[in-house]
Each structure stands twice: as C-alpha cells, then as structure tokens.
Inverse folding.
C-alpha cells in the first residue's frame, strides 16, 4: 500500500489517555486534497485534537487539515480518549482509508494499519490445556447416564424410524446428520434400528436415550425432547472413525435420562454490525442444537445495518443494508474503503426458521427500537425525521441521529408496518424490540415530543420511551406475540409485566426487574458476552468493556450466586442467554474463534444443575468435543 497509519499511546491516566497518530505517505506523489478516515472503538474528544479538524460518526473518524500530504513525508497529530486505558490491540485502529479528491472525482485509497503500541509490556497468551478425554464426552452433562455392556454398530442398512408427526422433524435431522457423518444415505422409514418413540408420560423437554446392541431408542413427549435426544445420540458418534466403513461407527451402550434446568437457553447473534451469510447462520444454529440451546435470538437491525426484507419499505434494504464511503450510511468498524452489507430475504428467513425448528430451536427476531435505529432513519427520513427537532445528544456508540421520535405519526406507522411483516415471518411466540441505550436529551428540543409530554402529563424522556414501547407491546399482543426487551424497556414504567426482560448490564439490574414483577432472561455482559476477550494478553482478539471472560469464568457462571435471592424470586429467571456482538467480527475465522469453546461452557450452564457441574470433568469432556470441532475444521481458541 502507498499509505500507513501508526497509533501510539503517549500518556496514560486512570480516565484519560493521549495518543499519537502518524500517517505516512509512502508514495512518490504529493496528495493535495484529502481526508483521513479511520475507525476507533471510543470517542475522540474534539478539543483534544492537536491540529486540523476531526469529526466522529459512530466509530468513523474523519480528519482533515487543508494542507498537502507530501511524498515520502508524514503527518503527526495527537488526540485523547476520556475512558479507561487501552489494554488490547483490538482497541487500536480497526481500519483506515484516505479519501483523495482530484478533477476526476473522489477515490477511496486503503491504508495499511499497524498494531497499536500500548507503551507497556503485555502478557503472553495462555493456551488451552485440557486433561485426557473421557470415554463418553457429552456436553451438557446429562442428569443420569449409565454405561452398559456392548456397542451398537451402525451398518449400511441403518434407518431411522419415526412413529409420529411430533418426532418426524427430529428424525429427519438425525438422518441428515448421520448421512453427512457416514457419507451414506440414511433415510427415515417406518421401521429402523434407530427409533424415535412418543411417550406422553414424559414431561415436556425431557428425553430418554437407550443404546443397546440391537439398536437405539429415543423417547420423548414433544418436539424439543426429541431434538435433545437426537443431539445426545449425535454426540455419542465417534469422531475419529474411518469414513469408508460404516462398521467403524460403534455407539457405546448407555441408558440416559435427562432434562434441562432452564426452559430458555439462548444465543444471540448480531448480524447488523457485520452481515453474516446464510450458511454461517445455519451452521451456528446446527451447533446450538447439538449443545441443546433452544432459542436463537437474531439481532437483525441496528445503527449500522438493516438486515431483514420489509416489502412495505424497500428502502430499508436498498439503503439501510449497505454502508461505505459513497453510501448514505457511512462505513463503520472495517471495510472503510469499500461497500459492506447484505440482508436476508423473506425466503431465506423462512428457510432459517424451518431449519431451526427441525432442531428444536425457536428463532426470536429483534427489531431494535427506539434507539439503535439509524439505518432505518437514514432509509426513511421522510417519515422518521422531524425537521424542527433541534435536540443535541450523543449515543454511547457516538451517534447524534439514531433514535426514533415518539412524537411523529410516521414512527408508529413504521413500527406497526415492520412488526406486522416480522410477525408473519416468525411463527414463534416472541419478538424482541431492543429498547436499550437511548441517550439523555434525545427529545429535549423536539416540538412534537414536547407537545406529547404536555398532552399526557409526562415529565421525562423515559416516559416518552415507555409510551412508544407500550404501543409496540400492544400491537404485538394483537398478533399473539409476547414482547421481549433489554432492561431499559422498563424505563418510564409503561410496558406490562408480560414483557420478559433480558438483563445485560449486570445481574443487579436483572434482580431489580424481578423485584418489580418482571420475568427475566439473564445475559450479563460480565459473564455471557462472547465478544469479550478470552485471555489477558493484549494480543487476544476481542474487547473488555465488561471484563475479560476466559473459558473457566464462562463455565463457572451461576445466576445470583452472590446475591440474596429468594427461591420465589429465582422462579422468575426463565433462562440464560449468551451473545456475540459483531462490531469486530467480520470473518468466518474470527466468528468461530470468539464462539468456541466458550459456547459449550455456556451450554452446560444453561442446561445442567449447579450440583452436576464440575470444572475438571467438563475440561475432559470438552477435550473429546474438540475432536468433533477439529473434524469440521472449526477455528476454536486453542
């Protein structure tokens, strides 16, 4: 490349750090009219910039001086962040681009970025060291497992037998996986050596697996129970057998009885910050099913991208699904010199929903409102913007124009229209509406919002937010849907106690919601955010705004272990969810690295009772599971 950008830490205080940025022109040409754009994770204080001007939109910083950038010369500038000191290389410059204007137009020139110099010695990364694998390595740990004598050999005439419509989807999933695993053609028939048997005496989600030399029996009373049984059988398959001989596939004879601790066991994937192709989404769902998760929370909209087709508003995907140097939505995080984006068609979404349902997983869509709505607002300014609104605010992600206006009629038309199409696409009972991180002062100078506050006697912006969310909740109820939201959904005290709150800030906020009468799903960033770094080395990928989450820390998460929670209050905990936010996750390799093996640890936290979990035993079983991940070529953290 002709340009290089270096970032160095030059002064560190507890709540402020100063940086030196050096832009090198390595070419033989003088550059006259140019702008430097670069991406950083934190807010640059405008007054701290040593010379020139800098403005920031989200993670995108735009710097210019009006001076030429001469050949084989460099530009030096300084600036400050008023946050805790950086400790990781990922907190440096994610990407950079030089926008050069000539008489032929504007050209986006990529810039090489070097690793940030933190000005301090960093720790070495600690590798994953595990004990020897066990004979049987099931994750999550089942309630009861008894090994018996003998093995069941999968022969080339093996078939899967289904005895009802309830277990047919799980039977088809098992047949597909066996066919892939064995490189043969395993079909679902009336009779077979692997049988799925309906038994209405078993409670929902419970299952039994019996492996005998004559065959395998999976017993359950509903779709989820059969899916759990299938996932257990799949984990009993050996991972190191020859692909050529079915006779090499021997399942150990066992008797297993099992059921989950929590009814809701979720994983959230952010597809807005970086778009993930369909195959990546489906592969994740397949692994979630293998480890007995039962809800896939699909974060489909945010400031940086709108990822779901809405027929009534084609602009949402024509404009809102794309960002880049010459797009309506500016580039963010990575790919500053080129376009990035994508969206899921309705046909693809139905494909994902059906794929997940076959595996016992409910897809929960999230349409984030009223904050995190910049992609929508930029796509539909004619109905979502108030020209007279002079409010000045800055969101935590450094946007000043990303919140829907509850005083506009168009806002409610937008919400109802979008949610109507969302409800038609997703047959599950739940829709997540976000509701997080609405900044202060957001509607302070909006004439329509101030008039609404006067009409309804509201005294704060939180009540305006609650007004909008209550409207969304009431609309969803007409569609037979239950509303989910982050804990900020309770602000303004307008939504009903039927709304389930997802607690992400910390457990304390979740407990407050419980004591105010809400059911909760726990997703504390300090325990379950898989975008957090897995190690304390500066080289480790990830961030640490919540904290660093090594594998052991993830495994030892126990809800309210350090809080005085009554058994009745604990009954309001409906489950646990982990999340992968994707500001910096834009490749398959990094996607896998951030997920695995911590996803397996969270799976056991969600499923197995506290007294059943044992860290040393889990490590041995994990070692056995890594052979499976190796077989698939998954880039887990080693």
């Amino acid at each position: 490349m002709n340009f290089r950008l270096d970032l160095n830490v030059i002064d560190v205080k507890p709540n402020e750090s100063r940086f030196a940025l050096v832009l090198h022109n390595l070419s033989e040409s003088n550059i006259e009219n140019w702008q430097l754009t670069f991406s950083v994770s934190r807010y640059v204080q405008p007054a701290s910039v040593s010379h020139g001007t800098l403005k920031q939109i989200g993670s995108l910083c735009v710097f210019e001086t009006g001076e030429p950038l001469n050949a084989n010369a460099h530009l030096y500038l300084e600036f400050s962040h008023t946050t805790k000191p950086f400790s990781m290389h990922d907190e440096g410059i994610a990407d950079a681009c030089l926008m050069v204007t000539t008489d032929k137009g504007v050209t986006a020139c990529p810039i090489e970025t070097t690793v940030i110099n933190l000005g301090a010695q960093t720790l070495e990364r600690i590798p994953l060291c595990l004990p020897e694998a066990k004979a049987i390595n099931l994750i999550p740990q089942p309630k009861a497992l008894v090994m018996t004598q003998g093995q069941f050999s999968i022969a080339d005439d093996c078939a899967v037998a289904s005895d009802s419509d309830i277990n047919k989807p799980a039977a088809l999933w098992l047949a597909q996986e066996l066919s892939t695993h064995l490189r043969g053609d395993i079909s679902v028939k009336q009779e077979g050596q692997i049988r799925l048997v309906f038994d209405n005496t078993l409670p929902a989600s419970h299952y039994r697996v019996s492996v005998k030399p004559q065959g395998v029996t999976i017993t359950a009373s509903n779709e989820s129970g059969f899916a759990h049984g299938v996932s257990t059988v799949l984990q009993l398959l050996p991972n190191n057998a020859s692909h050529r001989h079915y006779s090499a596939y021997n399942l150990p004879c066992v008797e297993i009885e099992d059921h989950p601790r929590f009814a809701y066991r979720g994983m959230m994937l952010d597809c807005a910050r970086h778009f993930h192709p369909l195959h990546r989404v489906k592969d994740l769902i397949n692994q979630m099913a293998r480890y007995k998760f039962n809800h896939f929370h699909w974060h489909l909209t945010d400031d940086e991208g709108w990822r779901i087709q809405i027929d009534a508003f084609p602009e949402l995907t024509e404009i809102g699904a794309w960002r880049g140097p010459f797009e309506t939505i500016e580039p963010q995080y990575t790919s500053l010199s080129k376009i990035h984006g994508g969206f899921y068609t309705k046909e693809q979404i139905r494909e994902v929903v059906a794929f997940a349902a076959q595996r016992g997983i409910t897809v929960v869509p999230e349409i984030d409102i009223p904050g995190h709505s910049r992609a929508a607002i930029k796509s539909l300014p004619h109905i979502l913007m108030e020209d007279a609104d002079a409010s000045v605010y800055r969101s935590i992600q450094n946007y000043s124009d990303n919140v829907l206006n509850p005083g506009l009629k168009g806002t409610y038309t937008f919400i109802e229209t979008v949610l109507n199409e969302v409800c038609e696409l997703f047959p599950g009972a739940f829709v997540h509406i976000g509701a997080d991180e609405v900044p202060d002062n957001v509607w302070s100078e909006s004439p329509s919002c101030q008039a609404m506050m006067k009409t309804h006697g509201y005294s704060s912006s939180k009540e305006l937010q609650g007004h909008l969310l209550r409207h969304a909740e009431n609309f969803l109820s007409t569609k037979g849907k239950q509303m989910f939201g982050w804990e900020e959904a309770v602000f303004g005290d307008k939504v009903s106690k039927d709304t389930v709150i997802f607690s992400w800030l910390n457990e304390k906020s979740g407990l407050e919601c419980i004591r105010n009468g809400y059911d909760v799903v726990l997703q504390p960033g300090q325990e379950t955010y898989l975008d957090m770094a897995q190690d304390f080395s500066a080289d480790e990928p990830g961030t640490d705004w919540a904290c660093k989450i090594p594998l052991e820390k993830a495994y030892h998460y126990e809800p309210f272990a350090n809080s005085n929670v009554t058994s009745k209050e604990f009954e309001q905990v409906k489950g646990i969810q982990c999340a992968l936010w994707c500001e910096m996750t834009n490749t398959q390799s990094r996607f896998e690295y951030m997920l695995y093996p911590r996803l397996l640890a969270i799976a056991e936290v969600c499923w197995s009772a506290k007294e059943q979990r044992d860290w040393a035993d889990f490590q041995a079983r994990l070692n056995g599971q890594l052979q499976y991940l190796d077989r698939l070529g998954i880039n887990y953290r080693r």
Remarks:
- Residues 3-113 form a domain with the Immunoglobulin-like fold (CATH 2.60.40.290).
- Residues 461-478 form the longest helix (18 residues).
- The chain has 17 helices and 28 strands.
- The chain has three domains: 3-113, 144-258, 264-613.
